[in-house]
Amino acid sequence: MRKFKLGIIGLGARGYTMLRDVILPFPEIEVTAVCDLYPDRVEEAAKLIEEKRGTKPFGTTDYIELLEKADVEAVYVPSAWETHIEIAIAAIRRHIITGIEVGGSYSVEECWDLVHAYEETGTPVMLMENCCFYKDELLATAMARAGKFGEIVYCHGAYAHDLRSEIAQGNVNRHYRLRNYTARNCENYPTHELGPIAKLLNINRGNRFVSLVSVASKAAGLDQYLKDHPELIEKDPTLKGRVFHQGDIVNTIITCQNGEQITLRLDTTLPRVYDREFTVRGTKGLYSQTTNTVFLDGEPEFGPDKTMNNAQKYEEEFLPEVWKTMSDEAKRISHGGMDGVMFRVFLDHIESGEPMPIDVYDAAAWMSVTALSAQSIAQGGAPQACPDFTNGKYLLREPKDVIPLNVSEK
Ligand SMILES: NC(=O)c1ccc[n+]([C@@H]2O[C@H](COP(=O)([O-])OP(=O)(O)OC[C@H]3O[C@@H](n4cnc5c(N)ncnc54)[C@H](O)[C@@H]3O)[C@@H](O)[C@H]2O)c1
Hints:
Elements: E1 4-9, H1 13-23, E2 29-35, H2 39-53, E3 58-60, H3 63-69, E4 74-77, H4 84-93, E5 97-100, H5 108-121, E6 125-127, H6 135-145, E7 152-160, H7 164-168, H8 177-183, H9 191-200, E8 209-216, H10 221-228, H11 230-235, E9 249-256, E10 261-267, E11 279-282, E12 285-288, E13 293-296, H12 304-307, H13 315-318, H14 321-324, H15 328-332, H16 338-352, H17 360-378, E14 384-385
Parallel strand pairs: 1-2, 1-4, 2-3, 4-5, 5-6, 7-10
Antiparallel strand pairs: 7-11, 8-9, 8-14, 9-10, 11-12, 12-13
Helix pairs in contact: 4-5, 5-17, 6-9
């Protein structure tokens, strides 16, 4: 069996759970190095690896030391938002294959720096956007590829996740969101919904983002939450009187070269239930993730009692094989199984040497939405031009799905 020597940089909630639930269960991965700014997190991860595998990884608090001294072929980077791109560039420039966890960028320049690091070295890099591998998004994408929705006109998605508790406990848990919600106002986490939409619309592969506008509501959700939870201020007195700049709701509209419109909503600081709202609208039908509905033109119109979950009837025909055969146990761990599917794809592409299905141009285009949205909001919703990180090559690049899709009409 081919062995992959992997390093992990960033061992917070995401890094540790991915190590425990997804990475260590792959027998072909040897986790040879771990890194975090906090020594206790390095020790905890090293202990887990020793327990599960009987080997001691190289451990460090300095990612440059990991990149230069450890025996790694690839690194996975679930560090905090501020350091993803910097660490990825350092790894790529040392010819170490890199999987970058998701987040937004702080400037368009750093996205260009990422692209240049890749182009100057050819080191494979993949944005580890797990939602691109989830069954709902793949089902709808397969149906779109098969022409079921006709010509696609509009897509929508949201990061709708009540994160008030996580944000408020940022200092207690040494987490990055608190400082970001204090200082910034932007579409700070676009890729969970935008990634699958961009793949469906062949962004950077015959299509591209042309411009965007973003507007933000006031920030009131966290203030109310802290009033309702004074115990959190007792635990972290820096929360008292803190002014949050991040608007509760941020709406972004992206216009694409081929005429499609995308809307995104960041919605993380008001009470709600989790939803990515993946929505595809075409001249012949729609998919809506919120109700798991497919509606095709010409079908009788029914209310929610009939259309709720009716997308299930298309699974036999359009769901990718990996999702049809996944065990219930696999679906229980790590985001309903999508993290495992994503990591398998990452390993397969390292092994085959095939270009990554979510590559550096996708990473730059998707992550740059955050920096561009900050500019747009600061300018009262003014349109921002989206850079073409492919420098025109999007006209030549063929569409590429993240995994093989079932698109044959039966
Ligand atoms: N794909 C998903 O479903 C998913 C889920 C959760 C988090 N994430 C992403 O994973 C990343 C981590 O999230 P988290 O919740 O674990 O955050 P976290 O704050 O718990 O962990 C981040 C860790 O990175 C470390 N770090 C930061 N800068 C570093 C550096 N220069 N060198 C080494 N280590 C460094 C921090 O010390 C911290 O331990 C974020 O980018 C987040 O967007 C993705």
